[in-house]
Amino acid sequence: MSEIVVSKFGGSSLADSNQFKKVKDIVFSNKKRKFIVPSAPGKRYKDDEKITDLLFQCYNSIENKEKFIETFKIIEDRYIQICNELELDLDILSYCEEIKNTVYQNKSLDYIVSRGEYLNAIVLAAYLGFKFVDAAEVIVFLEDGKLNFDETQSRLYKMSLEYDYAVIPGFYGATDKGIVKVFSRGGSDFSGSLVANGVNASLYENWTDVSGFLKADPRIVDHPRHIEKITYKELRELSYMGASVLHEDAVFPVKKSKIPIQIRNTNSPMDEGTLILSDFESPKYPKTITGIAGKKDFTVIAIEKMLMNEEKGFLRKLLSIIEDNDISVEHIPSGIDSVSLIISDEELRNKLDKVIEEIRTKLNPDSVEVYPNMALMAVVGKGMIRTRGISARLFTALKEQQINVRMISQGSSEINIIIGIENEDFESAVNAVYYAFEQANI
After folding, report:
1. E strands within 209-253?
2. What is the pLDDT of residues 140-150, one digit of tens each?
3. Under DSSP, is residue 240 helix (H, G, I), strand (E, B) or coil?
4. What's its catalytic activity (predicted)?
5. Which residues contribute to the annotated binding site for ATP?
6. Which of 1.10.8.60, 3.40.30.10, 3.30.1360.120, 3.40.1160.10 is the CATH number of 5-277?
7. CA 334, CA 281: separation in Å to the nearest integer?
8. Is 378 helix (H, G, I), strand (E, B) or coil?
9. How far apart are CA 420 and CA 424, in angstroms?
């Protein structure tokens, strides 16, 4: 693996010329930072608009030429201001005119909303003195909109041999026919991960406006501790349970090649951030609990039937009902004569009555009960498997706050424990568990 660092900068990191200057200082402070992946400019202040949001407005007003031009002018002015304040000799207006002309001929949503990254990469490349490489040339999509991973990696590797330093816009790529395709919102994280894997990077940096991840949601816990290191598995568990971390797909390409990810803060570049690893390099990692996350608004469908365990195909029939109604299940706790489905309220919207009726008709259970208003809390930590008394400390903390536990689930890997509680107890439960482990320093 080469000594190459790929650095992705988010929208807040490139919102205006002052942020561009910070990015330049960061990039030039380490010669290993050779390939840079920018997002479109984000908000400069609370009531500001992101460039990508303005581009969506442009798409929605294509049929109203006057409105389109008015909105696009705001975008042009933003880039002109950045270029002027950075004293760049760059005719950014010519690129904007080219985009406008293309839009009138091609009304593709993906093309329009990806132009924020495209323009920002052109500006950043000019400012850094790096080569601009259009993502449409190296991020390859199939005609059905799926990523052509192998071809993408091949082109990125060839790019790394051709250029020592380059800026590649995030969020989009193109088919072999040149049709622009985008990833989902937040997809610049994925772009950065693809570039890191393709150029055989030794590190993928994700620069944003926070100094890494926190052990709990700061809206629930006052001043939660910062997470120094986390594994890909722990990250996945926390992300799935609602923690605001990385774009979910961003981990895949670098995880495959065991490339570490470091989350850094553009506004506090001296902060170490959070390092995401395939496994901890040091056995001295101090904490048992890495983080706590969770979500509210789940419903439990509890089904009981005598001798359920002897009825072949019962669970298959039950899950077929769920699948036929296009519903995803979070957890399936079960006993000898009972099984429960824990499903998010969003998944059950306008479907609950139909599902219950089908269960009664097709499975003939002794009883079907519905229990709404449940929250799920995940306590995640790779160190739990080697530490005794974790469950005892966890449930003691909940008991002391008089919080009733409605469900418990722990996977065989023992990397997490899922607790079901009442919606109204969620915040109290997160605080209780967080402080129980922090005060014990385990």
Report:
1. 229-231
2. 999 999 999 99
3. helix
4. L-aspartate + ATP = 4-phospho-L-aspartate + ADP
5. 8-11, 208-209, 219
6. 3.40.1160.10
7. 38
8. strand
9. 12
Q: Are 32 and 2 in contact (CB under 8 A)?
A: no
**At which residue do the structure tokens 């139909």 appear?**
354
From the list 212, 188, 207, the residue with the least C-alpha distance to 29 is 207
Binding-site annotation: residue ranges = 8-11, 52, 117, 208-209, 219
Look up the pTM and report it: 0.84
Residues of the binding site for substrate? 52, 117
Query: Does an H or E element contain 204, and which?
Result: strand 203-208
Q: In degrees rounded to 5, what are phi and psi of residue 81?
A: -60, -45
Residue type for position 279: D
Give 82: exposed, middle or buried? Use CB within 10 Å, 0-12, 13-18, 19+: buried
Domain covering 291-440: architecture: 2-Layer Sandwich (3.30)
- The tens digit of pLDDT for each residue in 231-267 reads 888 888 887 777 766 766 778 899 889 999 999 999 9
CA–CA gap between residue 149 and residue 57 (Å, rounded): 31
